[in-house]
Amino acid sequence: MNNEINIDDQKRPVAEKFGTFLGVYTPSVLTILGLVMYLRFGWVIGNVGLGFTIIIVILASSITFITALSASAIATNMRIGVGGEYYLISRSLGLELGGAIGIPLYLCRTLSITFYSFGLAEAIVMFWPESSGVMPSYMIQLITIIIIIIITIISGKSAGLTLKLQVPILIAVGISILALSIGVFSGKFHSPEMEMTFRTAPQGFWYVFAVFFPAVTGFTAGIGMSGDLKDPRKSIPKGTLLAVITGMIIYLFVPVILATTVKMDPEGLASTGVETWTRIAIFGSILVVPGIFGAILSSAFGSVLGGPRVLQSLAQDRLAPSFLAKLSKTGQPTISTWISGAIALVAVALGDLNAVAQFVTILFLTLYVMINFSAAIENLTGDASYRPKIKVPWFISLLGSFGAIAVMFLINPIACIFGITFEIIIFLVLRKRSMRTEWGDVRAGFWGTLARFALLKLKKHKNNPRNWRPNILVFAGDVKKRLPLVQLANFLNQRRGILTVCKMIIGNIIKEEIDIKNKTEEMNNILEQAGIRAFNEINVVSTFEEGTLSITQANGIAGLHSNTIMFGWSEKRKRMISMLKTIRTISRLQKSSLLVRFNELPETTGRERMDIWWRGKHSNGDLMLLLAHLLSLNDEWKNAKIIVHTIILREEDREFMLKNVNEMINEVRIKVEPKIIIKPQDKSVTEVIHEHSRNASLVFMGLKLPLEGEEKEYVTRLEELSAGLKTTIFVRNGEEFAGEMI
User: Fold this and answer.
1) Which residue, 427, 399, 404, is CA-closest to 416?
2) Is 252 exposed, middle or buried (0-12, 13-18, 19+ CB in 10 A)?
3) Alpha carbon distance 610, 696 (integer Å)
């Protein structure tokens, strides 16, 4: 059975796609500016004073801002499918960890539908006439059921309609904040209380912080719409970060005006909830209540939109029944939406859900932990494919993870332990296997087991462009003389792959006495003195061609085989002809080849430019771009500008070619400068290359495979092309990602 999953290739009904404002910013900012803003701000100020309220807002917002940055970094590094946060985590850390987060995330979002519907029902109770007595509890449940049914029908029918309904809600929330501001500025002011009093919160500062923290969460509501966005890689970071910043600004503004107005003293702030706003705002509850209703309703809509899409993505990944991934004619996950609504209706029977509210908050926070952890691991692992447009240092992301963990324990240590245990159980179930080991020496046993485990895991993963690393095998000959070649290979490797330096000795190992051990040690000393971390080996072979091919095929261990073979230029024409023949065979082995010519050794400093000559097609160009990028990651090459040269014959082709090059540059996320050159009729291509690249520190050019018998002429051609250039790397891409920029 083929268990490969390719969500992007599945045929789906055409669905309405949304931009940054409607698809990401609006649901995110409305979930941030939710009911807690109306209920808790006055209470926080009345207990800890204005100064410590600002500290609480900054601390809480910092965690969400870091998480938003981490999510944005991951989002800008991949093509994002449906599933939002689950998709980001599962594609970074694997399906097991993704499922361990995704399943609880779906349950949380589904239960949130019930939470917010209950909240809206209880808000409606405010309009119940006092003459009728207290509204029966079953009536509140009935109203909740009606609300769930209505929002489920709307969301199942059209995500566009649901998101467009949030625009007037956003206006209502904005009007309520404006009404509060006018109410404050129309009265007098007093000096704010700055000390902590804990009038109604004797548990202390961190208790107040834990109660307030849910006010800044919910910014991932827009990320949950990833599969419905026109350009998720662009919209998610812009919309999410803008929503978090908007929430932070408003949350720094509201406490200042509440703490300085004379319309409410600190004692009143500490003992009231929504009444704080209705007493201060102009026209009282008339302008505030619609904002409160809208805040609750928008959160419910966010849950009923996000939850089914997580379930849809889980189904596409075969972590849930496949029928849940089916879409309606309008592209909506209708079945998943109905099931989510049904679960939310069943949850109404639980009555008061406050008992599990903290548990749900804890599970949401574990999501933040994993988003930050994913970004940190991606950064630390250093895959060549990890090139996000938004770069976040790994320690910042890790700080966000630790901050979220700390808040989990502050809110409820028992719920925290229970929530983490729940997710660990899901992870173990999804993994479906465990590894038993027997320990000898603790350290040796640990590293031996870890190495074995890693190699066995690596064996199961099919080679993929995303995980490509430069495992370079360099045929160096005399390492002392070829040290610049090995150093260049080390730069290209950029500490990400495995570098092997090979010295071939033409001879007969049976008849000749060759001290391989001592020669290997000498090589090792030379490399260590040069600061090059590489594996080295001595191979005795009968002929150059046969030896090169045998070593190329045999090099590596347990799936970690060399994928890029590097040769230095030879002044012996016969050796160059043999090299081209060998490269032709190496290409059939789906390994790439690099042929390097040094006319002038690279400077220690002043490496200012790398030129790539691109014919307008992929294959060799892809690898040349990636190698130039890897070089630029080294301190010695970090200031080098990468220029992609393309030669055209007519001025009319300039705009078309420039557009193609710019599209490629935007796709590969590498800082590159395009340069379109019109070939003069009186100059050859070689002359054009020499004219533009003679001052470049390094020049990349493609290497074609000459037909049998044409090797001699092609050697002459390569000599002409590289003559007068400082350093030239001829690139032949024979890897599986040929024709696809990774």
Assistant:
1) 404
2) middle
3) 6
Chain centre to alpha carbon of residue 726: 38
Say how far apart CA 9 and CA 548 lie, in whole Å: 40
Task: Enumerate the domain spans of the chain.
Answer: 16-430, 437-463, 468-732
User: What is the mean pLDDT for each group of 10 consecutive residues in the chain (742 residues)?
Assistant: 43 69 90 83 90 94 93 85 82 78 85 82 73 69 89 84 87 93 90 89 86 83 84 90 93 92 88 83 88 86 86 85 83 87 85 62 84 84 77 91 89 84 82 43 48 67 66 86 88 80 82 80 85 83 85 77 88 89 88 89 74 75 84 85 88 84 78 87 88 90 87 91 90 61 37
CATH architecture of 468-732: 3-Layer(aba) Sandwich (3.40)
Q: How far apart are CA 424 and CA 216, in angstroms?
A: 26
Cα 578 from Cα 560, distance rounded (Å)? 27
CATH of domain 16-430: 1.20.1740.10
* Closest-CA residue to 595 (of 627, 642, 632, 617): 627
> Which of 565, 556, 559, 557 lies closest to 585 in space, CA to CA?
565
Q: Please give the model's pTM, rounded to 2 decimal places.
A: 0.74
DSSP 437-498: ---SSHHHHHHHHHHHHHHHHHHHSPP-GGG----EEEE-SSTTTTHHHHHHHHHHHTTTS-
Q: Cα–Cα distance between 596 and 6 in angstroms, integer? A: 38
526: Cα separation from own chain's centroid: 40
Question: SS3 for 662-674, per residue?
Answer: HHHHHHHCCCCEE
